[in-house]
């Protein structure tokens, strides 16, 4: 019998998956949150901003390279709540439809044109109304003693509306919030639960990923006494049991991703959160991690990718970060040196190779599993894995 390429792909898709499986792997797309930072902390800077000038979501040619050549199947796409829900509307179900349309075009390109998976990423640190000094500015959502703060119910409403709009797209994953920090964990849980309730009330069955407190750091998941994420995050109730945990983990001295040197091994630092995930029968994505192009980072990044691949609680990851607006700036791990980003085709400021050339291609790319999920709904239990056709 003569096999066509399509037939071979179909056959590969029927292979059963191993017990520890990464179903979704790719890169964070960061640029949608750009253009609002103000050296003088002037509220409203860069709002609403000019699409394609101050901010953007993806470069379609970059996504093409990542999917067609690199066989990556997951993209986490950042946006700002202050652009989706302008301050004059307030946080909630009323969107700036022009802005939403630009965002949806990016999500549709990834999920429909390229048939990969996309994580919606409100890049807001559980704050809303002043992104001018992110990650610290803006009122904490649900802070009842701050009269300017959006409410927990408003946060539920924004997610109910997003869910309604993406419910018919099983390849869209709802990342509830980027890096909550410096807030009571009880309030974090209340906000996350309001979002889950809003999503399920809308009828959407999509996979949800929920972050912890303290920048959703994996290494500190069980630290902080009664405030530790480990004391709260298992309490989220999802009637469909289709919610996973969203973890960030950097390998430098203070886990910030700011430094060139990698000194924090993932296997050691993730051991406690891994045990917690097992204890509560939860799965996780690591949606931010990274390292520089130093020898130590090469080893430690590679070890981290192996660690995720070998522990069955981890089902997906996105490295930080690609995106069309980084230019020669670096998203992480360079002590502010301009070594470029993970965006295909980007360059360092000295004209040398970018982190795409020195970190993605040699270190991360070999760890993109040969078989990933290419069809069907994203779920906590994954779908059938196979080679990209
Ligand atoms: C909505 O977004 C468009 C496109 O960025 C912008 O021109 C417009 O001013 C925005 N409207 C509000 C109310 O922010
Ligand atoms: C809540 O708002 C009050 C009043 O503005 C402020 O003092 C407090 O720090 C805020 N809490 C958080 C977690 O931001
Ligand atoms: C969700 O999990 C709970 C606890 O294991 C179980 O009782 C319930 O039937 C599950 N619901 C669905 C929809 O799978
Ligand atoms: C690299 O790691 C070795 C030990 O594994 C350490 O001695 C050395 O200082 C590290 N280099 C940097 C630049 O961090
Ligand atoms: C990392 O990349 C930059 C930019 O291309 C280059 O200048 C630097 O020498 C590289 N560092 C190492 C350790 O290879």
UniProtKB/TrEMBL annotation:
Positions of the Glycoside hydrolase family domain: 46-322
Protein family (similarity comment): Belongs to the glycosyl hydrolase 5 (cellulase A) family.
Pfam families noted in UniProt: Cellulase
SUPFAM superfamilies: (Trans)glycosidases (SSF51445)
Protein's name in the database: cellulase
Signal peptide feature range: 1-20
InterPro entries hit by this protein: GH, Glyco_hydro_5, Glyco_hydro_5_CS
Reactions catalysed, as given in the entry: Endohydrolysis of (1->4)-beta-D-glucosidic linkages in cellulose, lichenin and cereal beta-D-glucans
Record's keyword terms, sorted: Glycosidase, Hydrolase, Signal
One annotated GO molecular function: cellulase activity
Phylogenetic placement of the source organism: Eukaryota, Fungi, Dikarya, Ascomycota, Pezizomycotina
Highest taxon, organism lineage: Eukaryota
EC number per UniProt: 3.2.1.4
Biological process terms in GO annotation: glucan catabolic process
Coiled coil segments of this chain: none
Originating organism: Diplogelasinospora grovesii
Keyword Hydrolase: yes
PANTHER family documented for this protein: ENDO-BETA-1,4-GLUCANASE A, GLYCOSIDE HYDROLASE FAMILY 5 DOMAIN-CONTAINING PROTEIN
